[in-house]
Amino acid sequence: MMSNPASGEPIDDLKLEEAETPDELLALWEAEGPAPSGGIANLVACMVTGALGVTGMVLSWNLGLGSLVDPGPGFFPFAVALIAAVLSAAQIFLGRRGGDGEKFTSYSTMVVWGVLSLAIFVALLPLIGFEIPSLLLSFVWMKFLGGETWRSATIYSLLVVAAFYAIFVAALRTQIPHLF
Q1: For residue range 158-175, what is the model confidence (pLDDT) as tens digits?
Q2: What are all long-range contacts of 30-36, with beta carbons under 8 Å and residues at least 24 apart?
Q3: Model-level pTM?
């Protein structure tokens, strides 16, 4: 039996098998999902995302943008932050015709834990290098946020960090701090 990730309630596998069309399946999923949050919550979410985009653009600008031919360290972060800000503005003005987003549930706190663990990763990276913080971040995301077993979270974390090490440190010789 599967469980609804938003509410944690079990979804009967027989109900899923009874849905004969995609529309029936969509209706079943919507009935099992969390309630809509409303327009005000969508507006606030877009404003927060837009503010983060503008903040990212300012911080990236301070790093130096460079040019298209010779990009500086702030070029790509600026581009990503610009995209986030533009999409947020578009959602505020054009997205109001769409449906309502979902209300916050207990699973919404996973985003907070994900951002917090990423902030810890960024703080530890220059101090102890790439390998240990990456391994811890990958493990935490897989085990605690992704619900993997201890064994699979450990194996996958080791494989992910080994792959990133092989690509970015060994093959591309990037200038990230690393221990080995």
Answers
A1: 999 999 999 988 998 888
A2: 32/4, 32/6, 32/7, 33/4, 33/6, 33/7, 33/102, 34/6, 34/7, 34/102, 34/103, 34/105, 35/102, 35/103, 36/99, 36/100, 36/101, 36/102, 36/103
A3: 0.58
